[in-house]
Amino acid sequence: MGFLDFIAKPLGLFLYWIYNTIALENYGLAIIIFTILVKSAMFPLTLKQYKSTAEMQKVQPLLKEVQRKYANDKEKLNQETMNLYKEHKINPAGGCLPLLIQMPILFALWQVITKPLKFMLGFSAEHLAELAATAKVKGAYPEIDTITYFIKNGMGDQVKNLNMFFPGHDGINLGSIPTYHFDLLAADPKLIILLLLPLLATLTTYFTARLSMPNTTDTAANPMGKSMLYISPLMTLIFSFQFPAGLALYWIAGNIFAIAQQSYVNKYVLKKKEVEIK
Fold first, then answer.
1. How many domains does the chain divide into?
2. Shared domain check, 107 and 24
3. Is residue 142 part of a domain?
4. CA atoms lying within 13 Å on the CB side of residue 26
5. Is residue 152 included in any domain, yes or no?
6. Is residue 32's pLDDT more than 90?
7. What pLDDT, on a 0 to 100 scale, did the predictor assign at position 95?
8. Which of 71, 98, 123, 234 has minimal Cβ neighbours within 10 Å of its Cβ?
9. In angstroms, rounded to a whole number, what is the distance separating the alpha carbons of residues 257 and 255?
10. Angle between the 190-212 and 223-240 helix axes, to the nearest 10 degrees?
11. DSSP-based three-state secondary structure for 216
């Protein structure tokens, strides 16, 4: 059993339930609905993160003054910094909890998407080995290669529900790895749709990062945020070409939800106003 199997198994069963019910047996739609439900369930934690970040921004001038005043006394600096946080009822680690929860879910979902026969359909290790031996797969994602082999050879109906992942020979396999190689794209035009997923994931990641930045005209006010504005989309682009397309679809749905969520929080919860520093 893998490290995240205890998370991946219930997530896989939940995703499969969504596929059979709400998503009307559409795998891509099931991933989108799954993402919305998970993000909605985590909204209280995310709201806490937003509030913690907003409070940290408010005390930045005071924090800078403390750092200037006690620059040569680390012990006093740490003490006064903690006093400042305590006075304003700020938990410096308050914004980390949602991220710590989301990361295992993300990695577990990666397991579900790359091993759907195990986590969604409940195939045993023996059954998976038998299918892999028949398909003679040796790639990094044997279950995806197994599904592709049986369906492309017209044997999808011989194995339970394989067609859900690759709906017909002309369907889009969300278990496939997106590619930017033009020779492969020319040979199989359907891969162009998969190419769009990493691009959309990258674009929505940029807008998510941009919206989460504080509204200030001071470009030096938040150097870490400015860096993440470009680092996050770049990492998304790189990873999207390393993992199955279903994960990129998860990122897109999650980012769109996050953009709507952040807009709502900024307007109705935090009532954030643009600050001009001259």
1. 2
2. yes
3. no
4. 7
5. no
6. yes
7. 62
8. 71
9. 5
10. 170
11. strand
Residue 246, Cβ density class (10 Å: 0-12 exposed, 13-18 middle, ≥19 buried): buried
Whether residue 252 sits in one domain with residue 198: yes
d(CA 52, CA 30): 32
Q: Residue 3: what are its φ and ψ, rounded to 5°? A: -60, -35
For residue 190, give its domain range: 166-278
Q: State the average pLDDT for the chain.
A: 80
Asked whether the whole model's pTM tops 0.85, one would answer no
pLDDT of residue 189: 72
State the Cα angle at 169 between 166 and 174, rounded to 5°. 25
Give the residue from 113, 105, 145, 103 showing the smallest Cα distance to 128.
145
Residue where a domain stops, chosen among 65, 90, 123: 123
E strands in the chain: none
pLDDT, tens digit (0-9, with 9 covering 90-100), for 176-188: 788 888 877 777 7
**Cα(178)–Cα(113) distance, integer angstroms:** 14
Give the Cα separation of 83 and 271 in Å (integer).
Answer: 27
| Both tokens assigned to 183 | 């020779």
124-159: per-residue pLDDT in tens? 989 888 888 888 887 778 888 888 788 777 776 666
Extract long-range pairs of 52-57: CB within 8 Å, 24+ residues apart: 52/90, 52/91, 52/94, 52/95, 53/95, 53/212, 54/270, 54/272, 55/88, 55/89, 55/90, 56/90, 56/92, 56/95, 57/214
